Amino acid sequence: MRRSTAIRAAACTVLAAGVAAPLVRRRLKLKPPVVIAAAAATPFALSALIPRSPRRDFVMCALQMWAYVAAYEMPADDPEALERRVRVAYPVNVDKALGMGTTPTLRLQRAFGTPGRFARWEKLLVWSHWLWFAFPHGTVLYVLLRHRERFPRAAAQVYATFDVGVIGYWVIPTAPPWYAAERGLMDDGRTPEVRRMMVEYGEQFWKSGWAPLYGVLGGNPLAAMPSLHFATSVTAAHVLSDTGKVAAVLGWTYAATLGVALVYLGEHYVVDLAAGAVLADGVRRAMPPLQPLARRLSRVAQTIEARAHA
Questions:
Q1: Are residues 151 and 242 in contact, defined by beta-carbon separation less than 8 angstroms?
Q2: pLDDT number for residue 191
Q3: What secondary structure does DSSP assign to 244-276, as a single string?
Q4: How far is CA 5 from CA 48, 173, 307, 310, in A?
C-alpha cells in the first residue's frame, strides 16, 4: 500500500509539473529541454494514476499534444534570435526550379486568383486549412471509438509524425512563402505578388475575432519545413485506409485538397509538402521495426500501473 501511494504521489507531481512547465516557461526562464522533458512525461504519469480506458487514452493523446505544442512554440519565444537563424532563400530557389522560374504558388495565384475577392472554391481551400487542426486528432478519435484494436498503432503513427517533424523546426527553421514575399525574395517585377490568402479571408470572415484567434493558433510562424499540416494529414489518410475503403477515400481526398490549399494560399512551398510526405512515409515504415521496443515500453508502463493500483 505504501509503495502504491508513493507511486501515485510521484505521478501526480510529474503530471502537475508537466502541465505547468509550458505555461510558466517564460516567467521562470526554463530551458527548452526541461520543458519538453516535463511535458513529455505527463502521459506516463497519467497511466500510473488512472486505469486503462478509452477516456484515459483520449486524455493521454491530449497530453502528448500539449508537449508537442510546447516544443513547436518555444523557438519563437525569442523572435529576434529565431529570425537570425531562419532560412528563407533555399525553398524559394527549389520551388522556382520546380515552377520553371516562378514558384508554383505565384503561378497558381496569378492564374486563378483575383486580389480582394474569393471564389467559393478558394473559400473551401481556406476552410480545409482551418479544419486541419481537427483532422489528425479526429482520425485518432475515430479509430479509438470504432476500431479500438487499431488504436495503439494509429495513435503512434499520427503523434510520431508530429514529434519527429517538430525536430526540423529546431534544426533548420524555415520561412513560408508569405514571409519570403514580405522580404522581397518572391518579387519578379510582375503583379500581383504572393498573397497570404488565409489571412485575407480570415479578416473578412472572422472580422474582429480574427486577430485573437490567429494569436492563439499562430504559435511559430517560421516553421515550414517539413509541412506538418501535410505530413500529419497523409499519416491520417494512411490510418483511415487501414480501417476501410470509405474512410480511405475521405482521408486521401482531404489530404490532396489540403496539399493544393497549402501551396495555393501561400502557406507552404511544394518542397515543404514533399518533405512532409517523406516524413509520413518514413514514420509508417518505421512502425514494424520499432514494435519490439514499443512492446517493452508498454510492459514497463503496465508494470508501473499495476504497482500504483496494487
A1: no
A2: 67
A3: -HHHHHHHHHHHHHHHHHHHHTTS--HHHHHHH
A4: 11, 44, 9, 9
**Closest listed residue to residue 263, CA positions, set 136, 60, 113:** 113
Judge whether 70 and 25 are in contact, CB under 8 Å. Answer: yes
- Is residue 254 within 8 Å of residue 128, measured between CB atoms? yes
Widest Cα–Cα separation across the chain: 75
Instruction: Write out the three cell numbers for 282.
Output: 518514413
| Mean pLDDT, all residues of the chain | 91
Residue type, 9: A
Q: Please write the tens of the pLDDT for every residue from 64-76.
A: 999 999 999 999 9
The pLDDT, as a whole number, for residue 48 is 84
- Angstrom distance (rounded) from CA 227 to CA 120: 25
Residue 133, SS3? coil
Cα–Cα distance, 222 to 39 (Å, whole number): 22
Report the C-alpha gap between 31 and 46 in whole angstroms: 24
Q: In this predicted model, what pLDDT tens digit does every residue of 257-300 receive, in sequence order?
A: 999 999 999 999 999 999 999 999 999 999 888 888 878 877 87
Q: In sequence order, which ranges of the chain are alpha helices (DSSP H)? A: 2-28, 32-40, 42-49, 54-73, 79-85, 89-98, 104-112, 120-131, 135-146, 151-171, 177-182, 197-206, 210-218, 228-241, 245-264, 270-308
- Which one, of 79, 38, 19, 37, lies nearest residue 223 by Cα? 79
